[in-house]
Amino acid sequence: MSLLDRHVGFVDALRRAGLPVSLAEGLDAARALEVIDLTERDTLREAYAATLVKRPAHRPGFDTLFDLWYPPVTSGLHVSGAGRDEDGPDLATAEVPELRDRLAELLLNDAGATGDPAFGEFVRAMVERFGNQPAGAGRQNWFSYSVLRALSPGTLMARMLNEVLLGRDRGGMAETVARRRLADNIAGFEEAVASDVRRRIAEDSGVEKIARSVVRPPVDQIDFLRVTKADLARLRREVYPLARRLATRLTIKHRHGHRGRLDFRRTVRASLSTGGVPIVTHMRPRRPHKPELVVLCDASDSVAAFSHFTLLLTYALREQFTKVRAFAFVDTVDEITRFFAPGADVVEAITRMTREADITRFGRSDYGHSLERFAEKYGDAIGPKTSLLILGDARSNYQRPQLATLKRLAGEARHAYWLNPEPRAQWDTGDSVATSYGGVVPMHECRNVAQLAAFIEELA
Q1: DSSP for 405-429?
Q2: What are the Cα distances from residue 15, in Å, to 22, 203, 223, 230, 304?
Q3: Calpha distance 31→404 (Å, rounded)
Q4: What is the CB neighbour count within 10 angstroms for residue 252?
């Protein structure tokens, strides 16, 4: 594969992984290759990163794909003496206890973090020796778990701590710092093993094939309906700036929405200079106020991951709006504002809500009944200063949608919006009444953080 083909394939792989790389940026990267030493792999990596990576969240995926398209070594082309360690045992024949001793020595010396060539050679030798497992035809036969199972790097922690502390008291700051450093080194070894396994799979199956499956999408493009617990922790960092922007947009929209009432006295006084003709009208300035928000979110199992994100958003919005009232529903509705007081732990708040809130009777979504109960019990929450934000998939298990109730609630609010986590192509399939509800309240597809950010931008 020529350098040009490799460059084009790498840029295309970045786009497929969700990284926003424009044509101009791809050309900038190609120009950068003309002024660097291509034999310096670290320089090549940073040249690509400087021209193609826009956000820190995109860097892990970039590094993974870079290692696939520009691997540090190629199997079968190792330098002579591969599998031998000048400072330790013969990596190809040594017993596992000797290999664990060598691994502990490398981890203690921060060999992975400092780029010690011996560390890379050790990783490749261990993958070569333990990572190749028999598999059926057409299946991959390189695995990182077999390497980690053979060497068990996590069980080396106690031994390494003893060597680092050298008899000093345990439990203090020195142990905390040492434990963190060694844990990072162990994690670095595990990632190096995984990276080498990916390289070998790419050599066997083709780099394009493995590149399509090895990189998770950036955090702003993770589908809310498929989010994991680990993803929620990353999404939490994305929520707060979005909440601030949403508050700002709604404030601007409210301020520019209507002018104040006619100031008759000032208008008549101004008309005296034009012969009594009121050419210029004067309006009374509106009384400034901060916006109010009512959030109504579906908490059913069908959108469990999405409801977790919406509750994170609700928690963040509590700190941006003067008055936020939050409500959750499955087949009946309850106010959950009390669980999300400023300063409360958001995970604990969500746990308390699922345990204490009265939001379910039979456990199946019923938007119509929930809307009726909301109007009956909490109708006073919506007024002319209120923005209503509904979050849910509009799937009501074939129950009556109660469109008239929704229309009345939306009519009493200053603004009303509906964010739906399902792809638009799935609206109105099965028990979905998305279009019917969308005819009353503008409905927006909101499957990830990027679409939520786009919705916020449209409010300007």
Answers
A1: HHHHHHHHSSEEEEEE-S-GGGTTS
A2: 9, 21, 17, 23, 29
A3: 61
A4: 13
- pTM for the complete prediction? 0.63
Pair 401, 368: CB distance under 8 Å: yes
**Mapped to the 3 state alphabet, what secondary structure does 295-313 carry?**
EEEECCHHHHHHHHHHHHH
Q: Please name the residue that has the structure tokens 């609206």.
A: 427
Residues across the chain: 460
Asked whether 286 and 259 are in contact (CB, 8 A), the reply is yes
Residue with the two structure tokens 């390289």? 199
Domain ranges in the chain are: 3-69, 96-215, 225-257+289-458, 263-288
Token pair in block for residue 256: 């520019």
CATH superfamily of 225-257+289-458: von Willebrand factor, type A domain (3.40.50.410)
pLDDT digits (tens, 9 = 90+) for 333-377: 999 988 877 666 777 877 888 888 899 888 889 999 999 999 999
The Cα–Cα gap between 337 and 340 comes to 5
Residue for token pair 């309850």: 334
Distance of CA 105 to the CA centre of its chain: 36
| Residue 395 φ then ψ, to 5° | -105, 115
At residue 6, does pLDDT exceed 80?
yes
> Which tokens hold the place of 398?
């074939």
